[in-house]
Amino acid sequence: MSLLDLRDLSVTRGAVPVLSRISLAVAAGEFVGLVGPNGAGKTTLLRAALGLVAHEGYASLSALPGMARARQAAFLPQTREVAWPVSVAALVGLGRVPHGRKMQAQDHQAVDHALHRMDLAEFRARNVLELSGGELARALIARVLAQETPLLLADEPVAGLDPAHQIRTMQVFRDLADQGRGVVASVHDLGLAARHCTRLVVLSGGRVVADGAPMQVLDDATLATVFGIRAFRAQSDGPVLMPLSVLP
Ligand SMILES: Nc1ncnc2c1ncn2[C@@H]1O[C@H](COP(=O)(O)OP(=O)(O)OP(=O)(O)O)[C@@H](O)[C@H]1O
Q1: By residue range, what is the domain housing residue 193?
Q2: What is this model's ipTM?
Q3: Model confidence pTM above 0.80
Q4: Ligand 1, atom 16: nearest CA belongs to which residue?
Q5: How far is the CA of 238 from the centre of ligand 1 (A)?
Q6: Both ends of the chain: CA-CA distance in Å?
Q7: CATH number, domain containing residue 202
Q8: Which residue from 21, 7, 39, 47 is spatially nearest to 207, judged by alpha carbons?
Q9: Cβ < 6 Å from ligand 1: which residues?
Q10: Mean pLDDT of each 10-residue bin along the chain, 248 residues long
């Protein structure tokens, strides 16, 4: 069964087509990495899939009423601004709002679990306005984890995290997929994407230009034509891909 179904999804900004007839289904058990150069349409695709951007075509989530959609899919936006001086635990607890009741034991458990997964247990009482950029990014990821939805959509979740927390976050997402949930995340680091995702979708110029197993998708031709780079490949406890140089 698909957790997300997009059919002929198109978005136009002004007179400019930003997404052109994207068809994509995401099943339980998949961790889909959305990769592509700056401006390829990754953010627009995630937002249109959620119905946050006017679009043509069909997006299964956008057809749902707000609260039902928030119980089906959690969304981590690219911007990480928090305006209120609340505790980390209170921020993460906002992930429980779609479950629509006063916080109960299972809600507190979900918050604790999310804090632990993002290595934030010691920060739970800290004012979010006093976190570093990476700590705040992790707190916002914890919030979407606490939402405990079948599907998680994340826009550049590992940007700004240190290497250990990048790997840990990608592993958390992979674990969610392995446990039968679905994750779609835009990722610029092709090495992390190749290593942790079960599937990569390559966007370029608002179109899907490749879709499949990570190391097959990131072949020399795609790296050259879409990203303008060449890369080193190896195997070491899984696939290794290291961008090496920009092609002339
Ligand atoms: N409100 C807007 N008005 C006009 N053009 C827009 C608007 N929002 C986005 N675009 C354009 O749509 C295209 C896709 O933008 P989008 O943010 O989806 O790309 P992206 O793949 O997420 O890029 P990045 O990797 O830089 O975050 C870009 O060319 C961008 O300039």
Answers
A1: 2-79+150-246
A2: 0.97
A3: yes
A4: 41
A5: 32
A6: 44
A7: 3.40.50.300
A8: 21
A9: 13-14, 18, 36, 38-44
A10: 93 92 97 97 96 93 88 93 91 90 86 96 95 96 97 97 97 97 97 97 97 96 97 94 95
